[in-house]
Write a structure and sequence with these properties.
The protein is mainly alpha-helical. It has one domain. The protein has helices at 2-12, 26-46, 52-55, 58-62, 66-73, 87-95, 115-132, 134-141, 145-152, 156-165, 178-189, 193-213; strands at residues 80-81, 171-172. Strands 1-2 form a two-stranded antiparallel sheet. Helix 2 runs antiparallel to helix 7, helix 6 runs parallel beside helix 9 (145-152) and helix 7 runs antiparallel to helix 10. The longest helix is centred in the N-terminal third of the chain and has 21 residues, at 26-46. The protein is globular and about 45 Å long.
Length: 216
C-alpha cells in the first residue's frame, strides 16, 4: 500500500527541469576571466593601452586587489571577445593558408605581449565549447550560432594557427564602454555583491540582445 502511494506521488510530481550543460564550463570561464583581468591590470599599469575601458579607468584597474579580481572572474560569461559575432572574420581567417597568417595590430586589441597566450587559451576554450554545445558557446562566449559552427568545424591545427596568427584579435568585451567597466570595477573593489549581481544580469542581457540583433 505504501509503495503504491509512493508511486502515485512520483507520477503526480512534475519532472525535474533539465540541468543546463553550460554549468560544467563555468569553472573554465572563471579561470579564463581571472587571467584576462590580471592581464588588463598589467596593461593599465604599463600605460600603453588605447582602450577606453582601460584608459579612462586606469587607476581603478591598477588598484584592483586580489579579492576584487576574483570577484570579476566570477561573472558567468567570458570577459574577452575574439570576433565571436563576426562570421565574415572567421570565414576569412579559417580559409587563410597557415603560411599566410600574420600578426596584424589592432587598436581595439590588447597591446601586451601576453595577449598571444590569452588568445591561445580563449581559442581552445571557444573551440571545445562550440564542439560540445553550441548553446553554451552562445551564452558563455557571446558567440553567434554561425561563428560557433565555423569554430566547431576547425581542426586542432587550425585553432592553433589562427590563435598564433591573430594574437591581437582577443579584446576586452565592451571595451568602448568605460562606464560599464567603471561600475564593475567599483562594485568588485567594494565587495558590493548586490551591485555585482545587477551588473552580472545586465551583462547577460546585453549578450542576449547582441545575439538577437545578428542576421547571419
Amino acid at each position: 500500500m505504501e509503495e503504491s502511494s509512493s508511486n502515485a506521488r512520483s507520477e503526480s510530481e512534475p519532472p525535474s527541469p533539465p540541468r543546463w550543460k553550460g554549468v560544467q564550463s563555468l569553472d573554465l570561464v572563471r579561470q579564463l576571466n581571472l587571467r584576462s583581468v590580471e592581464l588588463l591590470c598589467r596593461v593599465a599599469e604599463n600605460g600603453d593601452s588605447q582602450l577606453e575601458a582601460v584608459v579612462l579607468n586606469r587607476d581603478a584597474w591598477i588598484s584592483t586587489n586580489r579579492d576584487a579580481r576574483h570577484a570579476l572572474a566570477m561573472l558567468p560569461f567570458v570577459l574577452v571577445d575574439a570576433h565571436f559575432m563576426d562570421a565574415d572574420w572567421w570565414r576569412r581567417v579559417s580559409a587563410i593558408d597557415p603560411h599566410q597568417h600574420g600578426a596584424s595590430s589592432d587598436p581595439n586589441g590588447l597591446p601586451d605581449d601576453s595577449s598571444a597566450e590569452l588568445m591561445q587559451e580563449t581559442m581552445m576554450f571557444a573551440w571545445q565549447t562550440a564542439r560540445w554545445d553550441r548553446l553554451a558557446a552562445q551564452f558563455l562566449l557571446g558567440m553567434s550560432f554561425r561563428v560557433a559552427n565555423i569554430i566547431a568545424g576547425l581542426t586542432p591545427q587550425q585553432v592553433r594557427t589562427i590563435a598564433a596568427g591573430e594574437p591581437h584579435a582577443v579584446r576586452i568585451r565592451w571595451g568602448d564602454d568605460p562606464l560599464f567597466w567603471r561600475d564593475l570595477l567599483s562594485a568588485a573593489s567594494m565587495a558590493d555583491h548586490q551591485r555585482l549581481a545587477t551588473l552580472q544580469l545586465a551583462g547577460k542581457l546585453r549578450i542576449c540582445s547582441e545575439l538577437a540583433d545578428i542576421r547571419d
